[in-house]
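Action item from last week, closing it out:
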Amino acid sequence: MTAYKRQSHLQQAIMKWEKLKPPEPDDPMCCCECDIDQYGCCCDCEDLDEAFNRWLKDGPPKGGCQSPVRGAIVGKLEISMIPVLVLLPLLLRVAALHYLLGIIILTALPGLVLWYYYATHRKKRRTLFFLTLALFSLFYMYYLFITEILPRGDVSQLQQCAVTAGVILTVVCLIHTKRGPGVVATSLHEAHGQGQEANKDSAEHNGSIQSAASSGIATELQTTKEALTAKWSTCPVCKIKRPPRAGHCRTCGSCVRRLDHHCIWINSCVGQANHRSFLLTLSVFLLTSLYGISVVLCSLCPQQHLMTALLYCPGVYSQSSMALCFTCAWYSSIVTGGLLFLLVVQVLNISFNVTEREAQLALRNKTGQSRLWGLVIDTGEYSRGFYQNWVEFLTMAHASVSPRASLTDLV
């Protein structure tokens, strides 16, 4: 009994010491973990959210048996999905009634989305809102294209096939991106240590039979390996060893190899295993969106030039179906513009061989240089030139230690 009490006191002391440890630069400390805030009244960490969710789910049933399938579905659904499925079509139809209503609603929608983004980002919690918004917008635009634009008879079969193929490819690339960013596992550092020991033994064996000149080269290579090994760090949250450029995501709750950022639009991190497929998903979606907008505008405003049809299309509000399609073209243009900016930032970061997480840390520590009007932060740590940076990105090894994605990971 005494040994059990000693072990309990030891665990409490360790937990108190872990709270006093300084957090990682990309892992801000919650106010409830700080001794300054004695009452924790400003806390918005995930513990309160999880406790509240457990209180709701574990409430006493009001009679009858609940199906386990229904319980699993209810547990996965979020209240944030309801505004997307209900309000988005309603707002677009209201915006199609008059061009002034369209200006007001289409101007307010990005503001509401940004407000919800900062609200969820501050709480460090995952949400299906943005993934639902992206997928529902894609399928709703395609539904209007099939039901409203095709019956007009001025869209060829080749154009229809191109838009359909773009939608399908976008969904396929998104599913491939959702299979995992490359989570760091505990066995990774053990395998790395075994590999270092094997390389050391091999170097010692080869050093006994090499000449003095070759031994100098071997010493230089060994120094480089030791420098790379020194960059391995311990995650203060996961308590595991992680390789260079890996980072901990507080939203997903895991360490990711070559972490770039947590993307709200796919509800997952972007890391070494899915960065290339993420870039491919963005490119395919943007090409499909731009081509679909051009086809719709050519159908609604055949007498106007494509560059001016979005600004001036006479007679488009004479019919409700035409006005709705024109409003949706504007909505798609706003979404496309935001994702195009994201793609440009991604391309520039890859060109300078810097991740979004590293750029934010460099800005915070004032160790990077701003390039191209602030679009990219050059840290100068990993960059080896434009060509070599892209070769490294396109040929970087797939993270084999990431667990296999389940059906729940696809959302």
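Closing note: The CA atoms of residues 133 and 328 lie 14 Å apart.
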